[in-house]
Amino acid sequence: xxAPPEQVFALIxxxxxxxxxxxxxxxxxxxxxxxEAYTGVWPFGFLDTMTITHWEPPxxxxxxxxxxxxxxxxxxxxxPRAGGCQVIWAEELRxxxxxxxxxxxxxxxxxxxxxxxxxxxxxxxxxxx
Length: 129
Fold this sequence. Notes:
Layout: H1 5-12, H2 18-21, E1 25-29, E2 34-41, E3 44-56, E4 60-66, E5 71-81, E6 84-94, H3 98-127
């Protein structure tokens, strides 16, 4: 990202601004450490509830996904780098729908990766001066 870590971390953790960069997602902090994010276009989508489990600005935020569809852990780390910073986004998720979800993952994976990359490119455009 072409911006300092403090700026990028602040944008990433400004939950209402997720709609500006994360594909088809709106988010809000609904409690001290609780986030709700809806991905999709109503009624076709899902609610992703999360609890912030680690908060270390401007370097790291970790969450526990606690929703019906998305469950598991996630982390976003922001590291200083010449000319800006590097964003590392990692998720360890339990797939929904049991064996069917595991069977469909090879088809869904390339789409999920492409949409994640699109979202991060959009995030980068928001951090440019």
